Amino acid sequence: MxxxxxxxxxxxxDCPIRHRAVCARCEPQELGELEVIKYYRSFEAGQTIIWSxxxxxxxxSVVSGIASLTQTMExxxxxxxGLLLPSDFVGRPGRENAPYDVVATTDLVMCCFRKKPFxxxxxxxxxxxxxxxxxTLDELDAAREWMLVLGRKTAREKIASLLSIIARRxxxxxxxxxxxxxxxxxxxxxxxxxxxxxxxxxxxxRQISALKKDGVxxxxxxxxxxxxxxxxLMEEAGDDADGGFLV
Amino acid sequence: MxxxxxxxxxxxxDCPIRHRAVCARCEPQELGELEVIKYYRSFEAGQTIIWSxxxxxxxxSVVSGIASLTQTMExxxxxxxGLLLPSDFVGRPGRENAPYDVVATTDLVMCCFRKKPFxxxxxxxxxxxxxxxxxTLDELDAAREWMLVLGRKTAREKIASLLSIIARRxxxxxxxxxxxxxxxxxxxxxxxxxxxxxxxxxxxxRQISALKKDGVxxxxxxxxxxxxxxxxLMEEAGDDADGGFLV
DNA sequence: CGACCGTTTGATAAATGTCAATTCTAGTGG
DNA sequence: CCACTAGAATTGACATTTATCAAACGGTCG
Lengths: 247, 247
Known about the structure:
- Two copies of one chain form a homodimer.
- Chain A has helices at residues 28-37, 115-123, 126-152, 155-174, 190-197, 201-213, 230-236, and strands at 38-43, 48-50, 58-64, 67-72, 78-84, 89-90, 101-104, 108-114, 182-185, 218-220, 224-227.
- Chain A has seven helices and eleven strands.
- By secondary structure, chain A is of the alpha+beta class.
- Chain A is globular, with a radius of gyration of 19 Å.
- Chain A has two domains: 12-148, Jelly Rolls; 154-236, Arc Repressor Mutant, subunit A (Orthogonal Bundle).
- In chain A, the strands form three sheets. A four-stranded antiparallel beta sheet of chain A has the order 1-8-3-6. Chain A has a four-stranded antiparallel beta sheet with strand order 2-7-4-5. A three-stranded antiparallel beta sheet of chain A has the order 9-11-10, covered by helices on one side.
- In chain A, helix 4 runs antiparallel to helix 7 and helix 5 packs across helix 6.
- In chain A, 38% of the residues lie in helices and 21% in strands.
- At the A-B interface, strand 5 and helix 3 of A face strand 5 and helix 3 of B.
- Chain A binds a DNA duplex through residues 154-155, 189-191, 199-206, 208-209, 221-222.
C-alpha cells in the first residue's frame, strides 16, 4: 500500500549497512558474488515476515526499519526475544525451520538471499563465516545482557534500560554523541515494549509517566522522547553510568 | 585439596566430549594441532574461574562438571545468564575482557588453550570456526528460550522449566530416554536456582515443595529428584509436551 | 556435642498484574 | 472543516504474586 522505494537495483557499494552487516568483511570480488544472488524485500509495519515453525527458505539482513523476534506460549503470553535493527541478520544457516516469529515493527526493507546459495557461498568464503560468528557472539552478549534486565530489574529499571538502549543506538546512528540532550522517537508501541520487557502494557505506561514526572525524560506526544541527561537515565536503569559497553 | 584425577596426558581421541565440543568436526591431523597446545585445568566447586572485566588469556571447553556465567549489579543482585555443561565453550576469540563471572558450580575440569594460539589455529582451520559458529547459534537459541522463562513464566513454571531442562540433559547423557521415570541429582543449590530463574531462594524452596506435594516430582533428601511423568512436568513448565526442541 | 550451611516455613509488605473506565490522537468520510 | 471512530495510551481500584524479614530445622564436619 505505502509507496516504498524500489531498491532492487541498488549497488552493494552504496549500501547503508555495507560496513556492519554480514558482508562487512567481504572483498570487492566476494561482494560481487553476493550481489548476484541478493534480492530486496519490503514489509509493512505489523506484517509477519516469518512464522515460528515455518520452513526458512531465505536468510538476510535488515537494511532499514525494525523487526522483532517473538516467542508465544500456547495461552498467548508473548515475549520478544530480540530486536533486529539495520544490519542485523535474520535466519540461521543450517537450520530448516524458524524458531520464532519475525515481525516487522516498522516498515522494513531486507536484503535477502535464498538459503542454499548463501550457505554454499558461505562455505567457501571465510570472510562471511567469520563475520557471522562475530555478529552471533555479539547477539549472544546482548541476549545475556537482556536476561539480567528480565530477571532482576524492577519495572522502572526495565523501562529505563530500554530507553537507554534505544537512545544509545540513536546517538550512534546520528553521530551526535551522548553528551547533551538526546532526542528520538520510540519505534515501539507500549504493548511491544511490554512484550520486550516482560511487563504488562499498563505497567509500562505507568512507569513512563513516573519517569516523566521525575524529569528523567520529557515527552511530546506519545512517542517523541527527550532525554535531558543520559547519565541520569543510565543510573535509573541500574547500569553503571560510565561502564556502558554496548554502543 | 580434593584429589583430582590428573588428566594432563589424556588423548583427544579418548576425550568424553570429543564429538560435541569445539573440536567435534576436526580431522585427526587438526586434532593433533589442538592436542599440542591444549592443557587441562581443574577447579573446585565454588571457585571463580574468571572475574568479569578480567583479561581473558585462555579459552576452553568444559570437560566435566558444571560452571555458570553470572552477571552482578552494583547493589549485589545477580543473574545467572548461562549454565555451562560438558562440551560447552568458554571465552570468545577476538575479545580481550570477560563480560561475566565464570564460576565452578561443581568440581570442574576444563580443556584450555591459550587465547592467541587458539585464535591463530582457528583462523586457518575452518572446521573449528564452523563448529564454534554452530555452537554459538545453539547458545543463542538457548538464551532466547530462557528469556521467555524469565520474562513470562510464573515461579512454578520457572522451576518446572529448570527441572525439565536438567532432566532432559540427564536423560540424553544416560541414554535412558524420556519415557518412564527420570532420576537425577540437582547440581545447583536453591540459591543458584534462584539466580538462574530470577527468583528468591525462598520462592524456589516453596515452589519445589508445592511441586512435590502435587506429585509432579519426588524428593529424597534435598537434591535427589525423581520425575515420575516427564510429560506432566513439561505441562507444568508451560511447554508443549510434544514440541520440545532442545535436547 | 555444637556450629554452620543450606533449606524450609511463616507472617507480612511491596511490586506488579488484572479489570474497567476514560482520554488522547490520527485518520475517515460526510 | 468538522464530527465520528478506532486504536493507543492513561489512570484508577483492587487482586495476586513474589519479595522481605524472621525463625527454626536438619544434616555434616570439626
